Amino acid sequence: MPQKRLKALCVRKIEPLAKFHDRDGFDCGSEPLNIFLQQTARQHTTRGISRTFVLVEEEASEPKPILGFFSLNLCQIKSESLSVEEAKKLPRDVSGVRLGRLAVAKNLHRQGLGKILLVAAMKKFMEIFHTAGGIGLFVDAKDQKAKDFYEHFGFISLPSNELELFLPVATIQEALAHGA
Using one digit for the tens of pLDDT, what is the confidence trace for 65-93? Predict the structure, then answer.
């Protein structure tokens, strides 16, 4: 069977980062993101600072190669940092979820895995929203290319910092309802 055909049959899944994942073998092309995954992500999970989720092939043997990952943490912001339209509807301090990091292994770029990870992050946000609330998902884009990626999915720049973006809960709900 051709190699491409075999890859298509692999079932991929999102799971919490654990000891049996191959963190050292991951390379997304960004040293800070690689270092976070390799040296910090599990410590943050243990300390309750953030949670990291990885995309893996379900049937991979251990240590499971990581195809991509994202991390989430709770955040609180001043509503005044949002657009005037959003801010006037909210109390002064509002909570949300920060998409701290999102990365795809560099040999798998441009294959739709970033979208898979972002949709998974939106679903995790909705789990948190149904338990504790929150106005949306926030992300700090590392550069213009990352900003463009997030804007493609409906994120909007905050007036205070164009690389800090926000995806309102209503937009997340709509995207997930339409099979994002």
Answer: 999 999 999 999 999 888 888 888 899 99
- Catalytic residue from among 70, 150, 153, 155: 150
Establish how many alpha carbons lie within 13 A of residue 43's alpha carbon, considering only the half-sphere containing its beta carbon: 6
* Residue 139 near residue 89 (C-beta atoms within 8 A): no
Position 2 scores a pLDDT of 45
Question: Which pLDDT tens digit goes with each residue over 116-171?
Answer: 999 999 999 999 999 999 999 999 999 999 999 999 999 999 998 899 999 999 99
Confidence band of 3 (pLDDT split at 50, 70, 90): very low
150 catalytic, yes or no?
yes
Gap between the Cα atoms of 20 and 84, Å rounded: 46
Rounded to whole angstroms, how far apart are CA atoms 133 and 113? 27
